């Protein structure tokens, strides 16, 4: 399971980096989204995955014995997903507005020269 | 000591923002709420600072979960100082905004978002939990995105794309760093991390993690290879917004660097060299960038980058004297940079432009305002006894004893370039006659007196704080000295959080 996740993780990071290096705004957005998912899975993997041992203490014990599934990384990922959802929603609207104004998807065309400043 | 009141400076801005959301489209109510609320926030911050200064660090365990298990909020002297500075800057900007922001922008919720931004800043300064710091960073950037794009001019949106992409990327690096850090230590509490990170056997993994944090905070604070988003976006939003961004947002990166590098990743030789190289290149590129700009706000944007390098260099040396210099410079820089962009906004009101080629004759027409601006410019350049002068002494002296001669050279070049561009700007905008063929659209002259006061007063407030910092440097040095010793020897912070 871990090996599979690590391979997925690498692919997501590679794809994300490839996309954000492109000049298209939409691909930039896709790249950011891929990197975000990759980071979430990274946190998940680093929280050491175990099967069938929930973080519940037995009635006859006071503390945990042995390895258990750590709930903290999942809480972190949940928070990160919510945040990146909001950011992505904002980014999509922003890019749509920019496209309506500039009429291009090319990041290199986003430079209004200094002479047109107010 | 525990005290629930340390979060008051966060909640006050939350409540202001909520009340303003209720008063949607009632711009007068929003303005009164904003200025009044920011004043209350300032008083709260002063009280908090005084308490922390007299009684030491205050902590608050959220929902009473004992540290390191719950989220902990810590008000040590560095945090309290940052909250105080944020409140002074926030109060001034809120007065300026009540006049300097157009009604259309207010109708689309400028004021609530502005107060959410201040809430995020105060939260980031007060938290003692590294993941909570990330969450506050996100509160800050989502608010800043909205402020950046509010109004929807073409330049604004173009700048916002770069700003958004780089800031989301920075958060991603930061989050990756937190993930790895949790993986190798199993803790998120910064005081707890400070002890646990030393027990990690795989030191190279710790080194790699620290690079993620440097990358994340480096983008936020705009250091050398990562700063290009700043000069291409900070000149686009309204000046009140640019003042908040220029004064406070990049400094959050510096604050986070100070915090994380003092508690978790105490700089080793490699990190020191890396930070020093970054600092020197940041100063030089910022200075040279400022030299060729002809628009006042673009010039100020490059000066932000240049002066960030001064502070990163102080962190790179990581001795007590260097940290005193860094902290003092941070205090000075927040006040002065906020003021610079407010001045840019005032110049725009006076002349309808911010391009130095079209400006001129300000000193002849408005001698009193020009004098006020001159004092601020002097303290930016660091003319003794004003505020920019004192921290540089510490940075210079300590870099001599550390044999960091390249950094000294960069400091001198950076300071000279600052002097040169400010002198150039003064000559072009204030002393020179208005160039022939330029029609001046003076929006300031016909305004009623109270509106004029609302525009000039915040510059006066921040200017007098700068003068106070300069003349009363001894007190500020005492504060900076205590902060620096708390950063070098973190045992009091750890003790206050973990109650050992």
Protein described:
The complex is a heterodimer of chains A (118) and B (500). Chain A has three helices and no strands. Chain A is mostly helical and 118 residues long. Chain A has one domain: Helix Hairpins (Orthogonal Bundle). In chain A, helix 1 (2-20) packs antiparallel against helix 2 (25-46) and helix 2 packs antiparallel against helix 3. By secondary structure, chain B is mainly alpha-helical. Chain B has helices spanning 8-22, 27-55, 77-100, 103-107, 110-126, 130-149, 154-185, 190-196, 203-221, 239-263, 269-291, 296-317, 320-351, 362-365, 367-381, 389-401, 405-431, 449-471, 473-488, 491-498; strands at residues 58-61, 72-75. Chain B is globular, with a radius of gyration of 22 Å. Classes of the chains: A mainly alpha (118), B mainly alpha (500). Chains A and B meet through helix 2 and helix 3 of A and helix 6 and helix 7 of B.
Tag the structure with descriptive keywords.
heterodimer, A: 118 residues, mainly alpha, Helix Hairpins, B: 500 residues, two-stranded antiparallel ribbon, 20 helices, globular
Concise overview:
The complex is a heterodimer of chains A (118) and B (500). Chain A is mostly helical and 118 residues long.
Give, in spatial order, the strands making up the sheet with the most strands of chain B. Answer: 1-2
Poorly predicted runs of 5 or more residues of chain A: none
Helix content of chain A: 55-70%
Number of alpha- plus pi-helical segments of chain B: 20
SS content category of chain B? mainly alpha
Major β-sheet of chain B, in short?
A: 2 strands, antiparallel
Number of strands of chain A: 0
> Helices and strands of chain A: which structural class?
mainly alpha
Given as residue ranges, the uncertain stretches of chain B (5+ residues, pLDDT < 50) are none
Distance between the termini of chain B: 12 Å
What is the radius of gyration of chain B computed over CA atoms, rounded to a whole number of angstroms? Answer: 22 Å
Write down the overall geometry of chain A.
elongated
Second-tier CATH architecture of chain A: Orthogonal Bundle
The most extensive interface between chains reads: A-B, 38 and 43 residues
Strand content of chain A is under 5%
Number of domains of chain A: 1
> Could you please say which CATH topology of chain A applies here?
Helix Hairpins
Which percent range describes the beta-strand content of chain B? Answer: under 5%
